[in-house]
Amino acid sequence: MIPKSYRQVVLARRPPGEPAESDFRVEEVAMPVPGTNEVLVRVVYMSLDPYMRGRMREQASYAKPVGIGEVMEGGTVGEVVQSNNPAFKAGDVVEGRLGWREYGLSPGHNLRLIDRTLAPISTANGILGMPGMTAWFGLYEIGQPKPGETVVVSAASGAVGQTVGQLAKISGCRVVGIAGGAKKCAFVKDELGFDAVVDYKAGRLDADLQAACPNGIDVYFDNVGGTVTDAVIPLLNFWARVPLCGSISAYNAEKPEMGPRLLWPMVGRRVRMQGFIVSDFAPFFDPARRRMGDLVRSGLLKYKEDIVEGIERAPRAFIGLLRGENFGKLQVKLGPEPGK
Amino acid sequence: MIPKSYRQVVLARRPPGEPAESDFRVEEVAMPVPGTNEVLVRVVYMSLDPYMRGRMREQASYAKPVGIGEVMEGGTVGEVVQSNNPAFKAGDVVEGRLGWREYGLSPGHNLRLIDRTLAPISTANGILGMPGMTAWFGLYEIGQPKPGETVVVSAASGAVGQTVGQLAKISGCRVVGIAGGAKKCAFVKDELGFDAVVDYKAGRLDADLQAACPNGIDVYFDNVGGTVTDAVIPLLNFWARVPLCGSISAYNAEKPEMGPRLLWPMVGRRVRMQGFIVSDFAPFFDPARRRMGDLVRSGLLKYKEDIVEGIERAPRAFIGLLRGENFGKLQVKLGPEPGK
User: Fold this and answer.
1) Around Cβ B237, how many Cβ atoms within 10 Å?
2) What does each C-alpha distance from B241 to A198, B145, B244, B271 come to in angstroms?
3) What's the pLDDT at A17?
4) Is the ipTM of this complex over 0.85?
5) Distance separating alpha carbons of residues A156 and A304, to the nearest angstrom
6) Which residues contact A228 (CB under 8 A, 6 or more apart)?
7) Are A203 and A209 in contact (CB under 8 A)?
8) How many CB atoms lie within 10 A of CB B108?
9) Alpha-carbon torsion B318, B322, B326, B331, what sign?
10) Taking CB atoms and an 8 Å cutoff, what residues of chain B touch A267?
11) How far apart are CA B156 and CA B222, in angstroms?
């Protein structure tokens, strides 16, 4: 049943700006045999996330870069096909960080058993996984929204943004999304129920955002940086909080782009900006995941996935993600879901 | 004993960039007679502070602007010369916000009686006044320094900066000041005892700052913004704190200048930036002032003042302050200190 080889995607070279497909290489490698305590996993869903661009750089950011010729890093959901570890058995569905590959070997301790009764297994890469945890902890621990406040989130139809906005709505806030293009904007407003949405591609960002936020902005959950964030800063209220989750607009830049200096307005308005990485909150994931699972099953929290099939399509899909071409949580499906 | 008139400085027009002396006007006005509960104060020391530039603008920042023809706002230390208020009597020395004038009338409730046994009365405009409180609360409440951490402060010889650095030393930190010119730098290192100082005018800011901070930067107390802050950002450690106290480099600008975008580096390093205004902590000033008074009297906390004489010199001195020409806490002395 287990094939003799599988495919994986390695970093072929470090792109100087926007990555090209040639910066990646699809390789066929021999199937490993699990050693003592090891677990062999067949990957079903492979997550593609903006942070991966940082791993392609020479210099370490908050994590060590992927080496040239090494498999791209990333979260995965898969089926245990062989296990020498007493904690796992064949057929178990597990979440782990196995990277861009069809099969992966794990020492077991970094795998998490997924309860399939909670939600579709792909959500372990999405709303009940890293992006969902990012939304929950960034919004509540750093954003600290209060009922009636205005919460703005950029990349609002993305994996993190869609969850941030819906959670803020559940918490009694007025929620404004920023997204690119009519289709994403309609989804954010009509499907997710945000109070308003602003299309940053429509060419009137400052005016549209101001119109959408008549009472200013109390929490800005920043996924993008750049000119979108420039438009938000002047609207921040006294004591506003800005969870800094990502700056996708900067990920392909070789050196920081220039933008208007934004520190002075922050002084008098007591704005607090705080960078965070979701793993800071890892000890608290389980209870948050239970609460979010309840919200998903009750229908209060929706999620949209964008699923591409086949590992060979991963590089192209990832490049599109950095361009904002995905629509919802981007994943690559590598094979069938295991039977229940 | 009380003259029939006194001088005051009003805002003559709103400067488009760097203020000129002609943006101010010195007026002679009739001495007022205190009404019910009112107190007449002869100003001895008039504080000049960078925040005053914000009050000269049309748009409100965190406080309402000074109107054209209105007296410039500001902190003062003076002697009560006439009082219809039971809380004050002639001869009392008081701190208040009477503005740029030789005499001022107060309803009393916003005057604070100064205990002359604690320290020279001019310190009520300086290390035991607004700038000292700014240093204390910005450093401790927002910067949260821990022993062994590296604390960097810009405008290090200024009213706030000199106090921030000395407090951080007392708290067991390695302290690096950034100041302009050899004289200020020598003062910061030799007189105030900072561990290192960097001259931002020497043309090697990035390299000098890196050399002065071999373990990176844990707290950056920002008084200046602009290119000095640009040099600090890349050196911030994981979980660094940045109290945003002011951005003097931007105060004369009509619109935000451009600078390198700095949000992305903040994400992974979990940098927290927080603007604050000293008055947020007003309910807690008294105990902080007592602690700082103890430190001043014990000689652990030094202060340097830059005192100009005569109200007619205030506009020129204020323009110089925005250029960094002052050396220590800038004040204008309007008349003799009252006899004890």
Assistant:
1) 17
2) 32, 9, 9, 6
3) 92
4) yes
5) 11
6) A154, A178, A200, A205, A249
7) no
8) 19
9) positive
10) 62, 244-247, 275-277
11) 10
Residue recorded with tokens 């600090």: B232
Indicate whether B62 pLDDT > 80: no
String of DSSP letters for A147-216 = TT-EEEEESTTSHHHHHHHHHHHHTT-EEEEEESSHHHHHIIIIIT--SEEEEGGGS-HHHHHHHH-TT-
Q: Hey, what amino acid is at A262?
A: L
Beta carbon pairs, A and B, within 8 Å: 127
Q: What is the third-level CATH fold of B130-279?
A: Rossmann fold (3.40.50)
State the pairing for strand pair A329-333/A305-309.
parallel
Minimal Cβ distance to B275: which of A62, A260, A270: A270
pLDDT tens sequence across A7-36? 999 999 999 999 999 999 999 999 999 999
Give B148: exposed, middle or buried? Use CB within 10 Å, 0-12, 13-18, 19+. exposed
- Taking CB atoms and an 8 Å limit, are B244 and A267 in contact across chains? yes
List helix spans (H) across chain A. 52-55, 130-137, 159-170, 182-186, 205-212, 226-232, 263-268, 285-297, 314-322
Say if CB A167 and CB A139 are below 8 A apart: yes
For chain A, domain boundaries = 5-126+303-333, 130-279
Tell me which of B262, B263, B278, B322 to substitute to probe the interface with A (most A C-beta atoms closer than 10 Å).
B263
In this structure, are residues A222 and A152 in contact, taking their beta carbons and an 8 Å threshold? Answer: no
Q: Average pLDDT of B72-77?
A: 97
Q: How far apart are CA B274 and CA B244, in angstroms?
A: 6
Q: What is the pLDDT of residue B92?
A: 97
Contact in structure between B312 and B7 (CB atoms under 8 Å): yes
CA distance A282 to chain B (A): 15
- Its CATH class, for the domain covering B5-126+304-333, is alpha beta
Other Cβ atoms closer than 10 A to A89 = 12
Between A95-99, A200-204, B147-151, B249-253, the lowest mean confidence (pLDDT) is in: B249-253
Amino acid at position B104, single letter: G
Which residue, among B57, B220, B244, B257, would best test binding to A if mutated, counting the most A CBs under 10 Å from its CB? B244
- Say if the Cβ atoms of B267 and A259 lie within 8 Å: no
CA distance A174 to B208: 47
Residue B123 CB burial class (10 angstroms; 0-12, 13-18, ≥19): buried
Average pLDDT over chain B reads 96
Which residue of chain B has the CA closest to A225?
A: B263
Q: Rounded to an integer, what distance in angstroms lies between the CA atom of residue B31 and that of residue B97?
A: 18
Instruction: Quick: pLDDT tens for B272-282.
Output: 999 999 999 99
- The CATH architecture one would assign to domain A5-126+303-333 is Alpha-Beta Complex (3.90)
Residue A268: its chain B contacts at CB < 8 A? 54, 61-63, 275, 277
